[in-house]
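Hey team,

Sharing the Olfactory receptor run so nobody has to redo it. Sequence (323 residues) first:
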Amino acid sequence: MGDRETSNHSEVTDFILVGFRVCPALHILLFLLFLLVYAMILLGNLGMMVIVMTDPRLNTPMYFFLGNLSFVDLFYSSVIAPKAMINFWSESKSISYAGCVTQLFLFALFIVTEGFLLAVMAYDRFIAICNPLLYSVQMSTHLCVQLVAGSYFCGCISSVLQTSMTFTLSFCASRTIDHFYCDDRPLQRISCSDLYIHKMVSFFLCSIIILPTIIVIIVSYIYIVSTVLKIRSTEGRKKVFSTCSSHLGVVSVLYGAIIFMYFIPDRFPELSKVASLCYTLVTPMLNPLIYSLRNKDVKEALRKILGEKIFLFNSILTENRVK
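Structure output:
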């Protein structure tokens, strides 16, 4: 029996990504929707990274973390969106075995890194609001680099474990993945291996990643809220809540979708696809919008960059007219 499973496992050279089960006429609409959202992700996150790197006023821990968040959002959405858009036009909708492994590995790496980065950002806001006089000392450049590097390291370790564990399964039941990208749960559905240990280890991995980060975020915001309520100035309270509500909005969308996807029993594949859209495309699109539209410093930096570009463009036009 073991030899047969190994043989069947070795025969799998590619998978078929079913995607969304809609009539063919809607594929064009979905393609255009994915294209629009992905274009906004590229524009918003690249723009945020450029603003953070070029404006000296944004050379602070908060914007250092925000720049890394934009980098992570840009890359993990790029792991998913282009292939999904290609499959709207593809007859075979296939992805190679190596491509599936790579997609799962990179997605797991960046999504876990994002979770830790959001926890780091909550801790940063806690120090800034609750201990403002010690902020520059406690949130040193060295510590900020360590926190970001630690987030990537945790993402990498988790991804290696999750990917290696998933692709030791035997896929002799089918090679058709009922999803729009390679993910652990849809791959479990087409495996003919005993999934008990795999599911226990996956649940344990999700728990040790999600629970500590949520605890850090919740505890940080309990202290933040208690400190804000002591502020007598209405304007001061409004400013702090404006900054923190942006972060909380991002956390709520991301963690809500992930908890639904990985902790709720896997009975509704189509709902799982919709939940996946929230953290693969919606969150990366909303992050730069939320942080820029509700952030005075980012808006001023954007105006400065746009002003310089417009001035340069006008200068070039003037020179051409003179010639």
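The two ends are 82 Å apart (CA to CA).

Ping me if you want the raw files.
A.
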